Structure formats: structure tokens, C-alpha cells
Amino acid sequence: MRATAWLSVLLASAAWVASPAQAVPNPSRNVLWAALQGCILAKKATGRMFPCLSVDLGDKDRPGAAVLRAPGAATHLVVMPTDDVSGIEAPQLQRSAGNAYWRAALAARPLVTEALKGRLPLDRVGMAVNSAGGRSQDQLHIHVDCIEPRVRTALLRHGQAVRDNWTTFPIALQGRRFFAMRVRAADVDGFNPFAALTHLPGKSTDLRAVGIAVFSTARDDPAPGFIVLANRASGSFAGELLLDHTCAEASQASTQ
Predict the structure, then answer these.
(1) Could you tell me which CATH class the domain 3-255 is placed in?
(2) Is the peptide bond before 51 cis (omega within 30 degrees of 0)?
(3) EC number(s) of the enzyme (predicted)?
(4) Residue 183: closest CA among 147, 238, 148, 229
(5) In sequence order, what are the residues at sequence separation of 6 or more whose Cβ sits closer than 8 angstroms to the Cβ of residue 61?
(6) Residues of the chain with pLDDT under 70
(7) HSE-up of 96 (CA within 13 Å, CB side)?
């Protein structure tokens, strides 16, 4: 997310700025982390969570996660660890923490449909994580918002070609080619998308170059669940480009 967009959140959060354990050279990449500290401070001090929508502090067996609405956005949410986790490449995501944050993102999706007052079903809400070069903040944040309409059309047409292991998605999306894999409904709760990225085809193991997006399968898909799309870019890639922060489909539905 753009650092300038988070400045209003920062100003409204805490009167002090906490730095993550490993500070980054550019303080503008730390704005989201500072806003998160405001949420945690409010939760501990008053039981409220402003500016976050929810804060789960976790416990010794389970990492915590918070949900924050992007400034000025009705539906665009980010789900982030309450611990210091730099991004998609963070080693701790290969363990159980990766699954915990995945489940936190799944649980946040109804907040999008609630904001739209039911004008869009839950299966049209997607999740995405940007690559290291495609993000502006160095605190892991999973974007949750409406699916970009052309992406949804492509998934409806070609989704049934996606298998349980990584293969190339049949067509380009937003001008890029993707690897795709299916997560069946029975496996969703135990899935770790970050660990799955280590099995992408090719020799590169640098997850900093990878961006991902996750969408529900079509309602008539014979193997329901989710489809994970991953792009390994030589430069940078923002997985959230496969989302639509304007929720155009919901707007169209309200006028019909």
C-alpha cells in the first residue's frame, strides 16, 4: 500500500511511533507498523481497537492478527500479524504462523460483503499479497477486497483447468502469466499459501520476487475451494492488481 495513504491512519493511532525489531532505512515504509502499534495499544489499554476493525493479540500457541481498513476505502482491508513480520519472504511464514494469517484473512472477508450491504456474495471477495518490490510497507499485510471483474471472468472460464499442483494458468491476467493451484474445500483450514510458494516451478527460491492472489472457485466448480495465483516477477509485482478496490460489480448491482 502507498505510504502516503497511511499517514492519516498514523496520525489517528498513537502519539508515539514504535519501530519493528529490524528497522528499515526508509521510515515511510514503517507507517503501517506504527498504525498497528496504535491498535495494539488501544486494545490493551481500553479494549477498543481504533483505528483497526479488529485486533486478536493471540497467545503462546497462536500468533495474533489485526484487520485495518485502508484510509478512505469502504471495502479495502488489510490483515496483518501483530508480530514483526516483514513480508511474503519472512521465514516464520513457512511454519504454522503462515496458516494462522491465512485463516485470519479468510475470516476477514465477510467484512467486505457487510460494507457492501450484501450487494456482492462472499465468493467474489479475494485476497492478495504483494512482492517485496511491489509493496510500500515492510510489515506483512494481506489485502482483502473485491475481485477485479476481468479476473473473475477468466476464473469462471478457465478455473476448472487448475489442478492440485502448480501449473501455468491458461491465459494472462492483467498482462502477466501466473502459476495456479487449487486448494480443495476439505484442505482449506490446514493450508499455508506461503509454504506452498516454495514449490513453485523453476529454480529460483527467492520469495521476495513473488506476489500472490487467492480467489474462491466458481459456484459450479466440481472441486470447490480456492484457486491460488502466483507470479514470480524479475522486477516487482503487486498481487492486489488482481483486486478491484472500487468494487465495480457491487456498484453495478446496486443500479440494476
Answers:
(1) alpha beta
(2) yes
(3) 3.6.1.26
(4) 229
(5) none
(6) 1-25, 234-235, 252-256
(7) 5
